[in-house]
Amino acid sequence: MANVELGEDTTTRIESPATADLLVAIAAPVNVEQLRATASDTIRAMSPRSTNEVDPSISGLRAAVAFPADVAPPTHGSDGAVVLDPAGSGVEIRFIPLAESGVSAIPWLGTPATYEAIFQAARGLGVKACAVVASDLASFRPDLLQTLLAPVLEKGADLAMPVYPAGKLDGLLNASILSPVARALYGKKIRYPLALDFGISARLLQEIQPARRAAAQGSSLFWPVTEAVLRNRTICQTGLEVKHPVGDALDASTVLTQTVGPLFAEMESNASFWQRVRGSQTVEMVKALPAAATTNAASVDIRPMLETFQLGSRNLQEMWGLVLPPVTLLELKRLTRMPAEQFRMPDELWVRIIYDFALAYRLRTLSRSHLLGALTPLYLGWVASHVMEVSKMRDKEAEQRVERLARAYEDGKPYLLSRWRWPDRFNP
Amino acid sequence: MKRSASAADPLWYKDAIIYELHVRAFMDANNDGIGDFQGLIQKLDYLQDLGVTCIWLLPFFPSPLKDDGYDIADYQNVHPNYGTIEDFQEFLEQAHSRGLQVMIELVINHTSDQHPWFQRARFAPKGSPERDFYVWSDTDQKYKDARIIFTDTEKSNWTWDAEAQAYYWHRFFSHQPDLNYDNPLVIEEIVKVMRFWLDMGVDGLRIDAIPYLVERDGTSCENLPETHAVIKRVRAEIDRDYFGRMLLAEANQWPADVRPYFGQGDECQMAFHFPLMPRIYMALRQEDRLPIVDIMAQTPAIPETCQWGLFLRNHDELTLEMVTDDERDYMYLAYSADPRMRINIGIRRRLAPLVDNNRRRIELLNSLLFSFPGTPILYYGDEIGMGDNIYLGDRNGVRTPMQWNGDRNAGFSRAVPAKLYSPVVMDPVWGYEAVNVEAQQSDASSLLSWMRNMIALRKLFQVFGRGTLTFLNPSNRKVLAYIRESENERVLCAANLSRFAQPVELDLKAFAGMIPVEMLGYVEFPRIGKQYYPLTIGPYGFLWLELQPSQRPVDAADVAQVAQIAAEGPGDWRSLLDGAGRREMEESALREFLPRQRWFGGKSRQISLTVIEDWAVFNQGSSALVLVEVGYATGDPETYLLPLGLVFGPTAGEIREKHPEAVLAQASSADDDGVVYDALYESAAGTALLDWIVGSQEIASIHGSIRGAPSKVLGKLLGDSFPAPRLSSAEQSNSSLLFAGKVLLKIFRRQQPGPNPDVEIGSYLTGQANFPYVAPYGGALEYRREGQSTSTLGMVQGFITNEGDGWRWTLEELDRFYESVAPVNISEDGMPEERPRLMRLSEAEEKPFVQDHVGPYLQDAALLGQRTAELHLALAANRTDPAFAPEPLSAGDVDRLRESLTEHANGAFTLLKESLSRLPDATVDLAGLVLSRRRLVFDRFHQLVGEIHTSRMRIHGDYHLGQVLRAKGDFVILDFEGEPARPLEERRSKQPALKDVAGMLRSFSYAAFSALIQYSTRRPEEFEKLEPWARLWEQAVSAAFLRAYRLTAAASAIAPQEPAEFERLLEAYVLDKALYELVYELNNRPNWVRIPLSGILMLAL
Questions:
Q1: Catalytic residue among B15, B250, B760, B1034
Q2: Res A161: pLDDT
Q3: B254-262: long-range contacts at Cβ-Cβ below 8 A with a sequence spacing of 24 or more?
Q4: How far is the alpha carbon of B456 from chain A, nearest alpha carbon, in Å?
Q5: Sequence-separated (6 or more) residues with CB below 8 Å from residue A362
Q6: Which residue of A has its CA nearest to B490?
Q7: Distance CA B887, CA B991 (A)
Q8: CA dist., res. A397 & res. A412, Å (int)
Q9: What is the block-wise mean pLDDT of chain B (1101 residues), using blocks of 10 residues?
Q10: Which of B299, B424, B677, B776 has the largest CB neighbor count within 10 A?
Q11: Which of these is catalytic: B203, B208, B222, B1061?
């Protein structure tokens, strides 16, 4: 715990060793040694004794670090925590290893049980705010922590979600499904609803129990934005200048299954809420990002994607036929006959496909894993179409293109509602 | 170990869908022919999929089973037929893990005579605590006032016990002795029983036969205060030690008598609403909503935490205890043709057989069940439309095995059929091969699929379980319509109880501006207005409509994306309207904004450009009046007036949040963000506009000036002060600000150079003619610009307290008229004339027969005729102002009039000919007749030749009943603006006053037949009979109006003095108006075409 130059009133508050002002938490498995080093540097830098320029909103606050760990570092603190005083700086850091809570199928995302343990720890410490940071620790820096926490500590936000610098071909699963579906459902324009980093207020983390909710929903992911929206809590976005390269560790199908599935799963339990939401509202952008460099789209080879789409349309007709209405199937058939260079998936078609898959997920029209597997070729078809469309666009234009898609999801919401409310197979 | 509640919300039962089942009848896992808990566990997925949220188990305790388990021999165990206590626990856990709550029976009024407590009591000494577990007497004359409930089997509530040498008390079967709640030990034991099950995790307890717990001599032994004391004690025990549990009272009583079982929220949380059920069936059979509305009116309010339990059918008979003798006889005749269907005081049948297996009836009844205030309770098997077996004894016919599939024993059991506790239903219509779960699961159109969808839909709307209920009162009683409302949700439900399609007009004025969205398919219906909202509902159809605010919430950021305009700060109108921002305003903001406005007349045209023509700043720089010219791809441009506001900082945020629809553009300055918006949404601008007029201020615009011109009476109208204005939601082509109770400021959105006729006539009538029957003119805001005529931007009028407009008021009068004459046959001499001549009618004296029936409206029509003539006289009195001075109607004017009328008629007949095939059958003959008289119509117009001795003068121009207000027993005439879509020149032209007279005569005709159509929707057979009455009314009222008009106008030139000329001109105008109506109805309401057709035919051709 960074315990430095505290005023009298603050000293009084820390008489109990198990208190802190901030909790910085990592939700996915992390390299403990790297964490120790990074945390030491960062929290020392946050000390008022530091020569670094740190925002007053977090400077001098006592911080603890929670992380999921199979092997805890040597313990010499009370309550199972590790208290270090790196380099005899007088700045103590409390490391809190979290109880075993499983590993997510997406290694860089935490399980709901891990989030539950983090929030429990935060509640136990009595923190004012908690920052969850990605396990690559790229955002475990004073300036970035400040970006996540200042909106909570100073502006009264309950949830600060990051907006990452992204090129026009980055984060396409998020841009094509996760973000626009969440926006259409819950009415908040959040760019990264499943972000690896976010700041959360003491008030909000008091109210949510990710593991219990995920179990009730049959979801394997924790959706902070949904939790905040359901409780009518204040959400803001903040530009976080960091990139978390996830590499090619997982294939598209796995990532899609493991993220879109939980998104669909929580739709069912929140149906009575999102069916009342109309339109969407922009949330406050606390700190803007500088413009991103233009990505070279020519380097993306779309041929394998189109081949997967074509292969899917030949082999998965039977499954698609159970999920999609005839007019959609007909449009897909037309797409398969298009020359590659003219291949474009219209927004309205893509939106209806996603909404129909969401409904099929709810109705268990077919096994859920098979269902999401059958979505993968369609998704790759969308990616191919999108890459071709934005390849000659500037980043700003590409962003507007993504915005148009998000609006198409909102415009198509009545279709989802009518299908959801009266799921008749006899559709146009 | 005490288990916690399975539901997180302590009021879970308010949103629940309860499914009632008997373990014995549901599923047999061990193939002994009797259903059991292991079988039930196998079927939990089915219940979860169906969407129910709570399972209500009928008694499953050890019992001799002489009353289907309600004769309990051991309260703390499971009947061996159904499994073990461990099986029950497993079931409970499995149900909870699926999010299902569980309610069991707590039969505490009585036990089986085999219960150890009773056997012990028989042998215990008189007066001992053991003996006193039950109610004993040496005589069977005690409690004589208590009725016998099972009249078919029991002759007395007392039965002699030879061992005890005493009578024991039983309200039900003689093998079910009543427990004695005057003995504290009994209460203690019952509380122990209750704790036994609650500790296990049971969520709800249904308390059987709750009114009969305590007996007192000289009473009916029902609903006694001592009984309530027992319930309160039980409830207190639960509240002290358990969370989220529920007690459901079974009290087959009138709602007012059931109400005490809720206590002050300290007795039962739920109680069945017994009397509603038979009345739903009665309403359905009688095709009349009255029985339902009537019983709901008798239903008292209950505490916030309490809830009614609603059901269509259950394991008992359809009880008819809570109906009158006549109603019971009707129900027996309607629903139990075979005497075997009757038992006790009720009918032992399932839902589907009761309604003759009609799918639409089943759906309709379920729609009522799911949308009425309370928690719906489904009886097992009714979700697939299972039938019954009336040849089985007692109520066993509705307790047959669940029909799972078409296999042996309906898939219920693999035992040999003879071993089944009850035969499965096997006939060709209801048998398990025709009706079963498996078949319906694979059929997307099955009743089961429908039920599943409806349950899921109901669960989306908490308002059904928790909202208030308000019945609407449409005149068509075959339609039951009601509003369910909670803080955030409003749902309109309308159900057609008839086997034929029904029209209905609903009074939804309270929801004007909202958009009904059909809930099943999320289909938007037309916006609700101030008029009655018409719906047509198919046979046994129902509509659930969610009432949504009309505006989809606008994200202010979206507005920002449409137009971002730089300004230096508040008041920087120059940057916005003339500087750098002008281009953005003209090319983006205005072009986006205008088509969204209700008052904008060019919605169907393609805008080619918008140009800011002129503007003036007011309201201390915060607002500006802006004139915008809108050019179109084709046709002439138009000019519109926009009062705009420009604000920054928190005020801008408020505008964005409260009135996003008012925002034109996002403004930004170096310091802050702001918005450009329609200033009428904020009261300060409206107040400033009125001040502008009151103070006669003149403010320079860029190219001209705008001057306030108050009338002499404005000060009087306003008094010392005036309230802040409110923008009227009823705006159409203009916008109106209401200064409550004082004045109305009308902003004329579409601008045309030249005097506005509303101002021109209003000003003249108030200021010069002192005509008292108009809204007093208070002043105007005038725009002057060199080289063009002064135009009017806005006008102030005095506020008129009124009883509604003449149209609505007349329709109400007519409704009463038809109600009173419906039983009367019109006499031969009272028959209206087939082809009345209006003049002759007005010259004849009113017959007493007519006076008797039409009544006071004749005097009102005469008063309106007088006021109309007085208006015309006042308008004609101005001989100095060229705009008003009457001019003689020349022969040339008559020629032009004839040509114009002939041209209109030509168009109307062509359209009628083309539309013949689309007309309703009943109208085709009439249309053919009118077409055959085509020549006669033209002849009538051709008679308009030569000079007619009357004047051309300023008239109202669009005169009908909707243009007059009924106020303080008199009439006030409104709206001299004419049709805003027509050019100003045409609206200001001089015409014969008889055009107004003809307009009002046609309005009477329309009212008579509109009201008749409305009246006969609920009594279709009466249309023919009442049509002569409608014509009689129209002729009598028209004659009274005309008589008074002529009398008042006598000796003036506002109408021809020569009767033949008067008649010729008037009838030509009436015919023209009827032809105009014909065109309108052909294009818009083919079912109403008969009104103008009858009008044309009635004119003496």
A1: B250
A2: 97
A3: B254/B298, B254/B322, B255/B295, B255/B298, B255/B299, B255/B300, B256/B298, B256/B300, B257/B211, B257/B222, B257/B223, B259/B300, B259/B302, B260/B223, B260/B228, B261/B210, B261/B228, B261/B231, B262/B302, B262/B303, B262/B306
A4: 7
A5: A264, A267, A268, A420
A6: A276
A7: 9
A8: 22
A9: 76 97 97 97 96 97 93 97 97 94 96 97 95 96 91 91 96 96 95 96 95 94 94 94 95 90 96 93 93 91 95 89 84 86 86 95 97 97 96 90 97 96 94 96 94 95 94 93 92 96 92 90 87 94 91 57 70 85 85 85 77 93 94 86 91 81 84 88 93 94 94 90 81 82 91 90 92 94 91 93 85 87 80 77 82 88 96 93 93 92 91 84 86 89 89 92 90 85 82 95 92 77 85 92 94 89 92 88 78 81 60
A10: B677
A11: B208
Which of A272, A281, A414 faces B555 most closely, judged by CB atoms?
A281
Residue B414: CB atoms within 10 A of its CB come to 14
Instruction: Return the ∠ at Cα B71 (arms to B68 and B77), rounded to 5°.
Output: 95
In this structure, what token pair is assigned to residue B590? 């205005």
Of A271, A417, A426, the CB nearest to B444: A426
**Distance of alpha carbon B1041 from alpha carbon B1008, whole angstroms:** 15
Per the annotation, the verdict on B1063 as an active-site residue is no
Are the Cβ atoms of B548 and A278 closer than 8 angstroms?
A: yes
Residues of B in contact with A423 (CB under 8 A): 453
Beta carbons of B556 and A280 less than 8 Å apart: no
Q: How far apart are CA B656 and CA B674, in angstroms?
A: 9
Average pLDDT value for chain A: 84
CB contact under 8 Å between A423 and B453, yes or no, is yes
Query: CB–CB of B553 and A189 under 8 A?
Result: no
Active site residue B68: no
Minimum distance, in Å, between the CA of residue A14 and any CA atom of chain B: 35
Provide the H-helix boundaries in B822-933: 838-843, 848-854, 857-876, 891-915, 921-932
Contacts of A216 in chain B (CB under 8 A): 99
Residue ranges in B381-461 assigned as alpha helix (H):
437-441, 447-460
For A281, which residue in chain B has the nearest alpha carbon? Answer: B555
Tell me which residue of B723, B869, B809 sits closest to B1011, measured CA to CA.
B809
Q: What pLDDT does B222 receive?
A: 92
CB contact under 8 A, B460 and A421: yes
pLDDT score recorded for residue B1: 61
Contacts of A281 in chain B (CB under 8 A): 553, 555, 557
**Tokens (6 digits) for B607:** 């805008």
Q: Give the Å distances, CA to CA, from B649 to B283, B496, B654, B1101.
A: 59, 53, 9, 71
Interface test with B, best of A185, A188, A281 (most B CBs within 10 A): A281
- The answer to whether A136 and A119 have CB atoms below 8 angstroms apart is no
Closest-CA residue of chain A to B549: A278
| Out of B456, B461, B555, closest to residue A280 by CB | B555
The predicted pLDDT at position B824 comes to 83
Polymer length in residues for chain A: 428
The CA dihedral of A196, A199, A201, A207, to the nearest 10 degrees, is -10
The amino acid present at A305, given as its one-letter code, is: M
* CA pair distance B893, B901, nearest whole angstrom: 12
How far is A387 from B426, CA to CA, in rounded Å?
Answer: 63
Collect all residues of chain B within an 8 Å Cβ-Cβ radius of residue A280.
555
| ipTM of the complex model | 0.78
| Two tokens, residue A416 | 């989802």
**A interface mutation test: which of B466, B545, B554, B555 has the most A CBs within 10 A?**
B555
Q: How many CB pairs under 8 A join A and B?
A: 49
For residues B170 and B152, what is the distance between their CA atoms, to the nearest angstrom? Answer: 15
Return the H-helix or E-strand segment holding A24: strand A22-26
